[in-house]
Every structure is written in C-alpha cells, then in structure tokens.
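Thread: Newbie trying to understand structure tokens

Hi all, I'm a second-year student working on a class project, and my supervisor (Dr. K.) asked me to get a predicted structure for one chain before our next meeting. I've only ever worked with sequences, so writing a 3D structure as a token string is new to me. If someone could post the tokens and maybe explain what I'm looking at, I'd be very grateful. Here's the chain:
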Amino acid sequence: MYNFNDTPISISLSADKIIYYKLRAVHRRHGNAEKCIWIISVEEEVDCFKYAVFEKWLEEKKGWGLKINIEERGLAELGLSEQNEPLKIAKFVDSSSTTEWHGYPADYCRRKQDRPSLNILMDWKNKGIITKTQMDKIKQYKKCNL
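---
Reply by user tm_fold:
Sure, no problem. This is what the structure looks like when written as tokens:
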C-alpha cells in the first residue's frame, strides 16, 4: 500500500541503477482543479509507470504510459481532463533530473507538451497498441478513440 507521505518508490532498472516514482496528491480527486487527475488506484498508477519503464517508454526527462484493457482490447481510462473528459495516456516527468519521476494523465489534445514523441507513437503502433490512424490523430492533437 502506498501513500502520498512516503518516500519515493524505488524501481530497479539493473543491479546498479535505480529510479524513483513519487506520488503527487495534486493529481488526485481532491487535488488542484486546474490539473488532470487520475481515476485509477494509486497501485495502478505505480504499475503504469513500471510498465513504461519496462517497455522503455522513458526518454530523457519525460516518458509515456498506458494501461492495456485486455478484455476490451484497447486502452483503459487513466484519468480525467480539467473538462472531465476521459484520458488514456499518462505522462511521466523527471523535471529536476534527479531520477525522481512523477506522473499525471496526459491531455494531448489541449496541451502540446502532453503529446507523446514520434518514437513512442511508432513503438505503440508497431506493437499493435494503436493504429496508424490513431497515431496520426494524436500527432495532430486530435481526439481519437483509443
């Protein structure tokens, strides 16, 4: 069980390299009204980050995560935008370059900085997670049915 007052959660990349994930209450239900919020559990948030680490979806100081919905063969909702619209992509950042990451649901349609890089989008397309049409819409900041 995790809580927001704990020290950052350590995630081992190799025998000698560790990164950390920090939970942020500001992206939860009673957080900042001007922020996107998670609707998944704290454990699912941490798992989403671990999945991004495992899939090598972290690039420099930012990364991207997904939660695959196996039953519906698509992506699960991770959070809500400020306008209460469902979001299915997570963004992770290491803004202070300390290997201490935090994340939030990404609103790629409204926030240019929340759009995954072309490398990540291509990886998702090549793995069959998204289609070429979905990739093209995300690149153009357009809504698509993920």
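A couple of things are worth pointing out once you decode it. DSSP finds three helices and eleven strands in the chain. Helices lie at 42-54, 118-126, 132-139. Feel free to ask follow-ups in this thread.
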